Amino acid sequence: MSSCSGDDGLPANYQWFSNQIAGHHPSVIKNGKREIGLLQISGTSECLKPKQDASRGEKEVAIYKLMSSNNDELRNYSSEISSEFSTCEPSDVQQLRNLCPRFFGIRKLFVDGQDREFLILEDVTANYNLPAILDLKMGRKTYDPLASREKIDKESIKYPPQAKIGCRLLGYRIHSSDKTVKVRDKDWGKSFDENTIQNGLAEFFSARGPDSRSTVIREALNSLKSIRQFFETQKSFQFFASSLLFVYEARENLPTNLRIVMIDFSHAFNSNGERDEGYLFGVENLQKFLENLL
Ligand SMILES: Nc1ncnc2c1ncn2[C@@H]1O[C@H](COP(=O)(O)OP(=O)(O)OP(=O)(O)O)[C@@H](O)[C@H]1O
Ligand SMILES: [Mg+2]
């Protein structure tokens, strides 16, 4: 356990993760307490995601541990939640692993006066000179099968087009050579509907200049193929309120290196032999939106 907290409530050497797009963030104060967001140690290619409370945190840890189950340290892990996923097809787990950031285990840290657990993840934005990063929330429903009536109502009115298209822009960060960062948040994302979401996508994919947009989109379409293929075959998982994180190089004289990873598994469920049609629908629509921009 790291003990020497700085004035900002973080252990020495740690800082808030600067490339975070969506999710829990220290700028948000709820019931008088600030939220805990992702952390990083500057100069490393890892980021640390706080394990959320209750089953949400347990589920995410269980999924990442399942994907690392050839790791001895993790093989003995067992809990009620991990047994939820114990019947998942090994080939689905293997495929999922290839679509996610790498997982390096759990770290306990003392943050804001409290001991907390963090998932140590590969920072997928680390190997870029000027990263362009976009978070897309996937699926037709952003509430899970155990959600209360209140939660269902709250989620359903948040962004009605989600049910029609199966995806939503949560925001982006685009780094520029003049050291500025263009940031778009969830309100920007909500300003688009099923007819206009392409404009938001076009904006994100133009970071290398308008002439390069089609090249970047072709790379994205290529990467989306493996994600679609996974959802066409896998019958192990259902994901709710989960995201696709896109990242590519915005500096024009460097390779684009576009990558798409699946993140946020706090509402993952065993799908018991069913495909995740809501997520697949979102991927198919995304492909259509991007193809229309070519
Ligand atoms: N492995 C990663 N590499 C780089 N950035 C990441 C990674 N994982 C998450 N992020 C960033 O952090 C943001 C929030 O992540 P995530 O959606 O997993 O957390 P959350 O919404 O706070 O958690 P939860 O939904 O579990 O309550 C993402 O939008 C993304 O910008
Ligand atoms: Mg999230």
What does this protein structure show overall?
It contains ten helices and 14 strands. With 294 residues, it is an alpha+beta fold. The chain folds into two domains: 109 residues, no CATH class; 162 residues, D-amino Acid Aminotransferase, Chain A, domain 1 (2-Layer Sandwich), CATH 3.30.470.160. Strands 1-4-5-7-6 form a five-stranded antiparallel β-sheet, with helices on one face. A five-stranded antiparallel β-sheet has the order 10-9-8-12-13. A hairpin with a 4-residue loop joins β4 and β5. α9 packs antiparallel against α10. The longest helix has 21 residues. The N and C termini lie far apart (51 Å). The relative contact order is 0.15. The mean pLDDT is 92. The site of magnesium ion has 4 residues, from loops.
